[in-house]
Recover the amino acids of this structure.
C-alpha cells in the first residue's frame, strides 16, 4: 500500500494567489482529515469527512479555506486568496470508521506564502 | 469535550537512559488513547494505542504506555532511548461510541531530544 499521498510536497506562492492541496487516501478508508501544523498553534484539525461527506468544519479558519471530497479517492483543500499567515505544513490523514481505528498521516505539504 | 495535556514541551535525555513522557486527559466519557510520533519533516505515525483490556500497552520501537483511569493519565515510557528516538511525540484521545468518523483530540506535543 502506498499510504496517504499528498501533493505537492512543497509550495511557494505569493500573497493573493490560489493554492490547492491534494490528498489521495488509503484505499478502503472512509474517514479523511485535514490538519494544519505551525510552531505557534501546533497541530490543528481543519475539517474531516466521513464517506465523502464533511462532518465537522469548525476548524476551518475562515471563508478563504474550502475543502472538497468529490469521491472516495480524492480530496482537496483550497486557499483563496492566500495570505502569509497561512504558511504552515498541511497534513492529510485517513482512517477506517471503527472506533479504535488508527489515523494514517501523509507526508504533508509545506506551504510558504510570501 | 475532551482535552489532552502534555505538560512537558521538551524533554532532554542522554542516550541509553530511561524516559517518561507525560500525558493527562480530561473527558466526561470513556476514551480511546493514542501516542503518535513525528520525526523531522515527516507526518505523524502511530506508536501505540489503548482501546481496552490490559492497561499496559506495548508499541513499536520499544515504547510502552500505561493507562491509569483514576489519574486520567497515559504516560509513555521507554527503558533505554536511542539517538533515533529524537522526535516529537503527541498524545491523543477519541471518545468511545460516537459516530461520524474518528476525530482525535491531540495534545500540544513533547519534543524528545536524545543526546550522546
Amino acid at each position: 500500500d502506498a499510504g496517504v499521498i499528498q501533493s505537492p510536497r512543497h509550495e511557494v506562492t505569493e500573497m493573493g494567489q490560489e493554492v490547492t492541496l491534494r490528498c489521495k487516501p488509503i484505499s478502503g478508508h472512509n474517514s479523511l482529515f485535514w490538519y494544519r501544523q505551525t510552531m505557534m498553534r501546533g497541530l490543528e484539525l481543519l475539517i474531516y469527512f466521513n464517506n465523502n461527506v464533511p462532518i465537522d468544519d469548525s476548524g476551518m479558519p475562515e471563508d478563504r479555506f474550502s475543502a472538497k471530497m468529490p469521491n472516495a479517492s480524492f480530496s482537496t483543500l483550497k486557499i483563496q486568496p492566500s495570505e502569509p499567515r497561512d504558511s504552515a505544513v498541511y497534513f492529510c490523514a485517513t482512517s477506517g470508521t471503527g472506533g479504535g481505528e488508527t489515523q494514517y498521516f501523509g507526508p504533508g505539504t509545506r506551504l510558504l506564502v510570501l | 469535550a475532551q482535552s489532552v495535556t502534555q505538560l512537558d514541551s521538551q524533554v532532554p535525555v542522554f542516550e541509553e537512559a530511561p524516559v517518561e513522557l507525560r500525558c493527562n486527559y480530561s473527558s466526561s466519557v470513556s476514551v480511546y488513547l493514542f501516542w503518535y510520533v513525528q520525526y523531522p519533516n515527516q507526518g505523524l505515525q502511530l506508536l501505540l494505542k489503548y482501546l481496552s483490556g490490559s492497561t499496559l500497552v506495548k508499541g513499536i520501537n520499544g515504547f510502552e504506555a500505561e493507562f491509569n483511569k483514576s489519574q486520567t493519565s497515559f504516560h509513555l515510557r521507554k527503558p533505554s532511548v536511542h539517538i533515533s528516538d529524537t522526535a516529537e511525540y503527541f498524545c491523543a484521545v477519541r471518545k468511545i461510541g460516537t459516530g461520524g468518523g474518528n476525530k482525535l483530540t491531540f495534545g500540544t506535543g513533547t519534543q524528545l531530544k536524545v543526546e550522546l
